[in-house]
């Protein structure tokens, strides 16, 4: 599957899930349920994946933890906040750069309507 095909399934699953659960739960709840939802749609999902980083030639084994990585290609950063800040968006862009992944989503389940809580981030992805 391409990144965009995976992305379509991610968005559909997030919207379906949000319609049923609504806003205001903890991020971990959305993470667990979304991982299950994506798995049921036939996707390989990893949760809380430690991602090493390189700094000045030194490898740090746990530079950060990705909330979800789907099919080894798409990074999902989940939030449950009133509003997303530019720092949240930069976080996803940095994750993409450090992993070499080309597509990521910042999914804010704190929004009243899920569609307004979706931010798509790319890193050299062919559209």
Low-pLDDT ranges:
none
Mean pLDDT comes to 93
Outline the biggest β-sheet: 5 strands, mixed
The secondary-structure class comes to alpha+beta
Radius of gyration, CA atoms, in whole angstroms: 14 Å
The CATH architecture is 3-Layer(aba) Sandwich
Explain this structure:
The chain is an alpha+beta fold. It has one domain (3-122): Trna Endonuclease, Chain: A, domain 1 (3-Layer(aba) Sandwich). The protein has helices at residues 3-21, 27-40, 86-99; strands spanning 45-55, 58-70, 74-79, 103-108, 118-122. Strand 3 (74-79), helix 3 and strand 4 form a beta-alpha-beta unit.
List keywords for this structure.
single chain, 127 residues, alpha+beta, Trna Endonuclease, Chain: A, domain 1, five-stranded mixed beta sheet, 3 helices, 5 strands
Describe the structure in brief.
The chain is of the alpha+beta class and 127 residues long. The chain has one domain (3-122): Trna Endonuclease, Chain: A, domain 1 (3-Layer(aba) Sandwich), CATH 3.40.1350. It has helices at residues 3-21, 27-40, 86-99, and strands spanning 45-55, 58-70, 74-79, 103-108, 118-122.
């Amino acid at each position: 599957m391409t990144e965009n095909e995976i992305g379509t399934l991610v968005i559909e699953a997030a919207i379906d899930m949000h319609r049923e659960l609504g806003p205001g739960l903890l991020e971990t709840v959305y993470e667990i349920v979304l991982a299950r939802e994506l798995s049921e749609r036939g996707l390989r999902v990893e949760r809380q994946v430690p991602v090493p980083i390189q700094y000045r030639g030194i490898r740090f084994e746990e530079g950060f933890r990705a909330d979800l990585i789907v099919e080894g290609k798409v990074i999902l950063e989940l939030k449950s906040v009133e509003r997303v800040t530019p720092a949240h968006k930069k976080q996803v862009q940095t994750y993409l750069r450090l992993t070499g992944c080309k597509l990521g989503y910042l999914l804010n389940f704190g929004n009243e309507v899920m569609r307004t809580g979706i931010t798509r981030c790319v890193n050299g992805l062919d559209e």
